[in-house]
Write a structure and sequence with these properties.
The chain is mostly helical. Helix content is 50%, strand content 0%. The longest helix is centred in the middle third of the chain and has 20 residues, at 44-63.
C-alpha cells in the first residue's frame, strides 16, 4: 500500500502551524503551489497574501470557536505564525 503524501501526515506539518518544507514539497508534487508564511511581508504581493490569509483564517475562527479558543489547535498556531 502506498503512503499518503507528507503534507497529510505529521512529518509534513510544522509543529508551530502550517506545513514545513517537506510538506510543501509533497504538496507541490501533487500540483499545489504553496508558499511559506509571510508574517513580515517584504513585497506588496506578500502583504496581500498575508491580508488574505488573515481574513480567511478569521472566518475559520468564527466557524470553529473550539479551535479558536484552543492554544494547541492548528488554526491558532497558523495564525500566530502569520502574525494575525
Amino acid at each position: 500500500m502506498a503512503k499518503s503524501p507528507a503534507w497529510t501526515r505529521k512529518e509534513g506539518k510544522d509543529p508551530k502551524g502550517g506545513l514545513n518544507a517537506k510538506g510543501r514539497a509533497s504538496a507541490k508534487a501533487q500540483g499545489m503551489n504553496l508558499k511559506p508564511p509571510a508574517p513580515n511581508p517584504k513585497t506588496e504581493k506578500d502583504a496581500g497574501r498575508k491580508k488574505s490569509f488573515c481574513a480567511r483564517s478569521a472566518g475559520q475562527a468564527k466557524m470553529f470557536p473550539d479551535a479558536a479558543s484552543d492554544p494547541n489547535s492548528r488554526l491558532r498556531k497558523a495564525r500566530k505564525a502569520w502574525n494575525c
